Amino acid sequence: MGNDLYFEDVKIGDAMPELSKGPIMKLQHVLYAGASGDFNPLHTDDDFAKAVGMKDGVISHGMLVMGFVGQAITAWVPRKCLKNFGVRFAGMTKPGNTITVSGTITDKRQENGENLVFCEVVARDEGGDVKITGNFSAALPLKRG
Amino acid sequence: MADSTKVGKTFDPIVWEVERGKIREMAKAIGDPNPIYLDRDAAIRAGYRDTPVPPTFLTVPMMWSSSMPVLINDLKINFMMVLHGEEEYEYYRDIYPGDTITGIPKVASVEEKTSKAGKNMDMITVEILYKNQDNEDVAKARTLLVERK
User: Fold this and answer.
1) Do A85 and B88 touch (CB under 8 A)?
2) What is the ipTM, given to two decimal places?
3) CATH code where residue A16 lies
């Protein structure tokens, strides 16, 4: 993989590499419904979505967008180093949106023998509207363990 | 109002056998090309025992078990008015193909809140602690459901 990231490499204020996803197609909702088991028709059936008040039809699974954020994180931080990952769903995502995930390191400290980094993350659409805010922490290796 | 007398109640265990194909399917649905999720050899080269699960994989056992609708009914929450407010995972151990994980859903809290716009909402937090076949804690999922009034 060559994506080794060490505690010494990360500074407070550093930006996580950005990831852009999309534009989202309705087909991806079908794929995600099948993969995740979330078959709420709000995400796959325009008639249903309109009947419950979504005038443009289906909206994306929030967990799909959280999945984009997870992709961005584990493209940078090795999966096995991830300790905690939480998000707040701030806005609805729709087909056609392009989601960009970005993040900033907010803290790093050594604690109980672990080298912890803390990062805020945000997912926005092409217009800058925030869809997800969140954070994660990871325990990174030292270059000279 | 969601039934606050149910705080602390636990529900039927979610038992899930983790399959390599489901991990790949989840990564492909997200569109995540990271080879550790797709290819066992690539995962081993990167220091894993097998293809690990992506960070949001625990939504799979939760959704496929239909655990959430059962809980929503039991708490007398109006399904049509529920939003997924927050989701959080704590990771304790890797989860790999062949593992059988068991999660016990628990109602952690039910709170009534008023939004800035003056609307009443119930905030229901559900926690699921997952253990593996060796009875080791592997992860905890925390879901905040928001019931609009």
Assistant:
1) yes
2) 0.95
3) 3.10.129.10
Displacement of CA B28 from its chain's centroid (Å): 19
Query: Could you read off the pLDDT of A132-141 as tens digits, one per residue?
Result: 999 999 999 9
What chain B holds in terms of domains, given with CATH numbers, is 4-19+53-148 (3.10.129.10)
Give yes or no for B69 touching A (CB within 8 A). no
Whether a cis peptide bond, with omega within 30° of 0, leads into A23 is: yes
One-letter amino acid of B133: Q
A53 vs A103: CA distance, rounded Å? 33
- Beta carbons of A38 and B52 less than 8 Å apart: no
A37 interfaces chain B, CB cutoff of 8 Å: yes
In a domain, A145, yes or no: no
As given in the structure block, the two tokens for residue A41 are 């028709």
B111 Cβ under 8 Å from any chain A Cβ: no
Q: Which of B3-12, B40-49, B98-107, B129-138 has the lowest mean pLDDT?
A: B3-12
Q: What is the pLDDT of residue A85?
A: 98
Average pLDDT of span A19-48: 96
Full domain range(s) for residue A64: 7-139
For B51-79, the pLDDT digits (tens) are 999 999 999 999 999 888 889 999 999 88
* Contact yes or no for A80 and B80 at CB 8 A: no
Q: Per this entry, what is the length of chain A?
A: 145
| pLDDT number for residue A1 | 42
Q: Do A79 and B25 touch (CB under 8 A)?
A: no
Domain count, chain A: 1
Q: What is the mean pLDDT of residues B31-59?
A: 97
- Which residue pairs from B124-128 have beta carbons closer than 8 angstroms and sit at least 24 positions apart in sequence? B124/B2, B124/B75, B124/B77, B126/B68, B126/B71, B128/B14, B128/B58, B128/B62, B128/B67, B128/B103, B128/B104
**Residue at A26 is within a domain:** yes
Whether the Cβ atoms of residue B143 and residue B84 lie closer than 8 Å to each other: yes
